[in-house]
Amino acid sequence: MAGTITAVASALPEQSGSQEELWDERFRHHYGDDAAARRVWMRCGVGRRHGVVDPIAEGVAEWGTARRMERFVEEALPLGRRAVERALAGAAVAPEEVDLLAVVSCTGYATPGLDILLARELGMRADVERLHIGHMGCYAAIPGLVTVGDAAAARDRLAVLLCVELTTLHVQPAIRSLEQIVAHALFGDAAAATVVRPGGVGLDLVDATAHTDTATAALMTWDVTDRGFRMGLSPKVPAALRGHVAPVVDTLLERNGLARQDVSAWIVHPGGPAIVDVVGESLGLEDEVLEVSREVLREVGNCSSPTVLLILERMLARGQIEVGESAVVLAFGPGLTLYGCLLRAGGG
Fold first, then answer.
1. What are the start-end ranges of the E strands in 34-91?
2. How distant, in Å, are the alpha carbons of 28, 40, 85, 237, 321 from that of 37?
3. What angle do CA 256, 278, 267 make, to 5 degrees?
4. What local confidence, expressed as pLDDT, does residue 236 receive?
């Protein structure tokens, strides 16, 4: 792999609410003012979230899947476009220079897809290559980066990767389920895009790895139903990941001549506060190393696939990854799957 990330940018829906507001004004009624549900809601590490819809006010829980998919296209197109335009501007790239557009989403589908609609709206060439990566969940940004990085390295393609997830479109009818309450409490909407070149100044995509524990596949699910997509999220997920984090990370680092102490930045998907804690404990990381992951969870929630790019965007903006330094991106999702990527900041 030798593709280089030259810009990362995001876009959030204008509508937002604090966790307290979302509970008091919306979900308290959804769950019948249940005190146990409120405790779960307030302890998930989220302080504020953004959404393209007000799911309770608009009655999304009663919508069929077709109506949710129609709204997905209506909302994802302008949100994704803003993220892509910002990334292109950050990389000083014109839309007609893009050779490959990859779109990641597990929260909406359409044909013609977002890749086609975005390419048309942005004025990309008719021969732009397009790819859609769907239903992989929270870790999907990493295989997306790997794919466009390979295209940049092997075929000299200038690529754009867009991750856009609209989780608010999948609020479910209220049931007394801890998994559903946690899912409704954690997730927010976002889009994030990155430009990947065959080389240059930026973050080189050095290597990647994946590990799937199929014995624990039932602990995290994302089922297509007549009422949208339903999340299954067991509280056993952090414990199931614990035994895999260190071996997977150490193998990735060792085959590139590195150890944990050689890594300057850790971009860890905050699936929830317990998952961030497990990663920190498994790798022996100080709390401040994972503060940006917790900050993103606190300020925008778990946004599924865009989340690691939101973290990376903040780190780059603050100069937290300097030339010559290495960074590791980690994300987790259905499978159970752990995906990792090694980056190195280069000066061109």
1. 48-50
2. 8, 5, 40, 19, 39
3. 50
4. 93
User: For residue 150, which phi and psi values (nearest 5 degrees)?
Assistant: -65, -40
> Phi, psi (5° rounding) for residue 92?
55, 50
Q: What is the chain's length?
A: 348
84: tokens are 């892509």
| The predicted structure's pLDDT at residue 1 | 54
Which pLDDT value is given to residue 62?
95
pLDDT digits (tens, 9 = 90+) for 267-324: 999 999 999 999 999 999 999 999 999 999 999 999 999 999 999 999 999 999 999 9
Q: For 302, which DSSP code?
A: B
Task: Based on the residue annotation, tell me whether 138 is a catalytic residue of this protein.
Answer: yes
**Residue keyed to tokens 């302008």:** 78
Closest CA to 53 of 149, 167, 155: 167
Instruction: Please give the domain boundaries of the chain with CATH numbers for all domains.
Output: 4-199 (3.40.47.10), 202-347 (3.40.47.10)
Within 235-347, strands assigned E span: 263-268, 326-333, 337-347
Q: Buried b / exposed e across 311-332, counting CB within 10 Å, b at 16+?
A: bbbbbbeeeebeeeebbbbbbb
Q: How far apart are CA 35 and CA 107, in angstroms?
A: 30
CA distance 126 to 293: 38
Q: Give me the pLDDT at residue 289, please.
A: 96
Contact 108, 76 (CB under 8 A): yes
Of the candidates 343, 294, 321, the one whose C-alpha atom is nearest the C-alpha of residue 145 is 343
86-127 per-position pLDDT tens digit: 999 999 999 999 999 999 999 999 999 999 999 999 999 999
Catalytic residue among 44, 138, 163, 341: 138
- Name the stretches of the chain with pLDDT < 70: 1, 348
Cross-strand bridge partners of residue 21: none
Instruction: Please name the residues in contact with 149: beta carbons below 8 A apart, sequence gap of 6 or more.
Output: 1, 2, 3, 159, 196, 205
